[in-house]
Amino acid sequence: MKAIDREWIIKKVLLVLAMMTVLGIAMIIFFVVKESIPAFRQAGLSNLASSDWSPESGRYGMLVFFTGTLATSLGGLLLGAPLAIAAAVFLTQMAPRRVKTVVGRGIDLLAGVPSIVLGWLGLTVLVPWIRALTNSTGTGILAASILLAIMVIPTITAISKDALEAVPRSYREAALGMGATRWQTIRQVLLPAAKPGILVAVILGMGRAIGETMAVALVIGPATVFPKSLTSPTHTLTTKILIDMGESTGVQRSALFAMGLVLLLLAMGMILLIRLVTRRMQPVR
Amino acid sequence: MLRQETRDAGIAVLLGEGVRKAEERAARYDKAATWAVWSFAGVAIGILAFIIGTIFFRGITTALTPSFVFGKPQAIQAGGGIWPMIVSSFYLAFLTIAIVLPVGVGAAIYMSEFAKEGWITRLVRFGADSLSTVPSVVFGIFGMVIFVIYFGLGYSLLAGALTLTLLNIPTVMRTTEEAMAAVPHSYREASMGLGASRWETVKKIVLPSAMPGITTGTVLTVGRIVGESAAIIYTVGLFVRKIPTSPLQPAAPMAANIWHMYTEGALVSDWMRVANGEAAFLLIVVLVLNLLARLLAKVYQKKLGTKEAR
Questions:
Q1: How many whole angstroms separate alpha carbon A126 and alpha carbon A146?
Q2: Which helix (H) or strand (E) holds A19?
Q3: I need a labelling partner for B145 at 20 to 30 A (CA). Which of A93, A137, A148, A191 fits?
């Protein structure tokens, strides 16, 4: 009887620990919403959704930063996803074992490089290159996209690799057996079969790019206007929050939390998207 | 008659020619694609080598001397060191691990050993998934509001550790669950067949067998904490002169201090040198932790392997 009681207590304690995840996300949502209420009340939705950020005259528009977030992450995906998917194909289909270990570990290691370190390298190496090549400040969407591409590669590679490995061996053998070349097998059989998984990989990469702060903050500009080109300064949601939070009060501070809320919504959107994709691929299994 | 035959033969030749051409094209594509994919992989590795090479080279040639690593930081003069920043990074990492490990491992035990699939597990998974997609800067401003201001902890190691605990619960949970899933079911059945309760089985059989995976995951989590910056800038602090001694004191982990050097750079003339040195040191720490994780996994594997062989 006593043993059962102890088991019961332990089970409940473990349940409480597991519920910490739910409590955590609930608290984050609650506090971010609560802190952003003054912005919605006093500035209003149309003010917040405008592209005019000038707190001194009561304008708290975040459209420029939202655009910056979308542009940099799409740019990062455009550059990074093909490389990452190629790396996954390489690792699962082409690489000899030795090369596979080296490349695989290298890409794992890339995931461990702290974003501030990558940003620092971007600021001191990449930005001067772009500046010299394009005769501009060098900071902006292009530099941020290149850094984000490097950062999404490990995420997309790892998950695409799992997806490619999950394709039944028989598919590959059947295609090769019918006389298809390796590339035909990869393009017409393996990649289509692994498509949902690769899609999830790309969405998660997008999530990582949207949330990335430090690396982007060091190379984005900053400026509070739409960029005139890919190499002129601008801002993203994360970098604006990071740079302004220390010195903001009142409605301005609240507007920064509203930007955090937008980021939260984007993150939740990603999760829903992934659930949709994985649900649609389940019946096939 | 004859014409018909010649025509058929002609068609056969043409068809053969077509097939041959298609095959040749396929072979050419295959070669080109192989070449392209190899060079893509080469580019990826090239980028990595370039990053590590540049950071190391610059760090070692411009900054990393004993007097820099073990020296006192300077706020307005050149020639400062980073010892308190190094200590801050590790202090923060161990404090966070001390909190996140029991929570994450406990949650994982619940999910993999006790829970039945149902709305509770779905809710917990949703919570973990959500936490792992929240941008780190949002963790940062949340931590600032609740731990720094609301709980009155101020900029402190504890406020940062609590923030980073939330950030790292999903990964600790996932690595632990994976490690526990790798423990054969027969172990559990054998233990419970001998009359052990579920918790005794977890404590004496499942956890010890899952230890290698949990340890490796923990080492990698330390690496992630040491490298994290956006979540700690508004919770832990950016610059200190002295080594922090209590969890309630502010600290300046290297990652945050690099940001400080960039934003307040004009204050010290050699700010680039300090940032270079910290970047190199951070990268070294992450590399060493990665190697350590791999090494530990190998050692454990050997140990378990020999045990089974006996």
A1: 9
A2: helix A2-38
A3: A148
Task: Please report the ipTM that was assigned to this predicted complex.
Answer: 0.91
Distance CA A119, CA B94 (A): 25
Residue B240 domain boundaries: 66-309
Q: A32 pLDDT band (50/70/90 cuts)?
A: very high
**From the CA of A275, how many Å to the nearest CA of chain B?**
10
DSSP string of A129-160? HHHHHHTS---SHHHHHHHHHHHHHHHHHHHH
Give the global pTM. 0.90
Fold of A63-281: MetI-like fold (1.10.3720)
CATH of the domain at B211: 1.10.3720.10
B106 contacts: CB under 8 Å, gap ≥ 6: A13, A14, A17, A18
By residue count, chain A amounts to 285
B134 and A218 in contact by Cβ < 8 A?
no
Instruction: Judge whether B239 lies within some domain.
Output: yes
Q: Give CA–CA dist B107/B81, Å, rounded.
A: 41
d(CA A91, CA A106): 12
pLDDT in tens, A77-110: 999 999 999 999 999 988 888 888 888 888 888 8
Cα separation of B273 and B62, whole Å? 6
- Number of folded domains in chain B? 1
Q: Do A102 and B220 touch (CB under 8 A)?
A: no
Per-residue pLDDT of A190-249, as tens digits, reads 999 999 999 999 999 999 999 999 999 999 988 888 888 888 889 999 999 999 998 888
Highest mean pLDDT out of A53-67, A175-189, B93-107, B238-252: B93-107
CA distance A212 to chain B (A): 7
Partner residue facing A264 (CB), from B26, B126, B138: B138
Mutation for A interface: B24, B50, B141, B259, most A CBs within 10 A: B141
CA A86 from chain centre, in angstroms, equals 19
Judge: A17–B139 Cβ closer than 8 Å, yes or no. Answer: no
Distance CA B60, CA B72 (A): 19
- Joined together, the tokens standing for residue B253 give 């982990």
Q: Classify residue B54: in a domain, yes or no.
A: no
| B96 lies in some domain | yes
Indicate whether B146 belongs to any domain.
yes
End-to-end CA distance of chain B: 83
CA distance B216 to B295: 9
